[in-house]
Amino acid sequence: MENNNKKEITEIKNKNLTGINFSTKNLNNSLFAKSNLNKINFSKANLSFSLFKKSNLKMANFIETNLKESNFIKCNLSEANFKNATLTKANFLKVNFTDANFNDVNLTDANFRKIRFAKSDLTNANLSNFSINNKKFLINFIGEKLRKVNFSNTNLLDAKFSYLNFIAPIFDGANFNKTNFKNMSLKKGSFINAKFINCNFNKTNFSYANFNGTTLKKTDLSKSNLNLSTWKNAILENVDLSYANLSHVDFSNAKLLNVNLSRANLAKANLKGAELKAVNFDKANLNKIDFTEVKLIDTELYK
Predict the structure, then answer these.
(1) What percent of the chain stands above pLDDT 90?
(2) Coil, helix or strand for 166?
(3) CB–CB of 96/78 below 8 Å?
(4) Label partner for 52 (CA 20 to 30 A): which of 6, 45, 65, 123?
(5) Considering Cα of 295, then 297, then 301, then 302, what sign does the dihedral take?
(6) Is-contact 23 4, C-beta < 8 A?
């Protein structure tokens, strides 16, 4: 079906356009291939449906640019500025975003494969329904500034996040598969109705986080800080919570199946209406927990 937003294609190949000003221009459906676009100015331009291939876009200006359904393949976008840009349904393959600015960017339904995001700033970015799939070459988020980022309904397959400080991130409805969040801070994060399979969250700070309705299977949360987090109606199966801080946690009406809570701190946790099957409480701190309305199956309490 013909798209009325498209025009005849503009092709730029093997060109040096360093510092050229294309601000506010209508360049939708354009091709930029094997070109040097260092410090190019595309601010407020229309580049929807465009293709950037094997080009250098270091320090490019994409502020308030329309990049809807654009494609970037094997490009250098280090230090590029995408502030307030529209990147809905955009595709990125083998792209370097080191030190890039994604403040207030709309990345809804965007797709990332084999991407480098080191030190990029995604403050207030909207990544709803976006997809990260990097089975062989892990995406590395290292040292990014990630404040109030919306990851709702995202698919995070084989993504690697290390030593980051998220502030109140939103992951509601997200799917985490073989995702690594080791040594992270996700304080006050929202994970409502999210799904975790074969994930590693070892030594991660989830204090005050909301996991209501979440499903976790074969996931490592050992030595993590989950103080004052809430897990109402959550399902945890084959989850490792050994040595975790779970003080004041709300597990009301949750199901814990074959969960390792050995040496965990569960002081003053709320387990009202919870079902615990084959749970390991060896040397756990169960101080001030009321088990009168807890269903225990093949579970012994160690104090």
Answers:
(1) 67
(2) strand
(3) yes
(4) 123
(5) negative
(6) no
pLDDT value of position 145: 55
47 burial (CB, 10 Å; 0-12 / 13-18 / 19+) is buried
Q: Are 143 and 164 in contact (CB under 8 A)?
A: yes
Give the tens place of pLDDT for each residue, 15-56.
999 999 999 999 999 999 999 999 999 999 999 999 999 999
CB neighbourhood size of 133 (10 A): 15
pTM attached to this predicted model: 0.74
Give pLDDT tens digits for 190-243.
999 999 999 999 999 999 999 999 999 999 999 999 999 999 999 999 999 999
Dihedral sign for Cα 83, 85, 88, 92, please: negative
Q: Which amino acid is at 236?
A: L
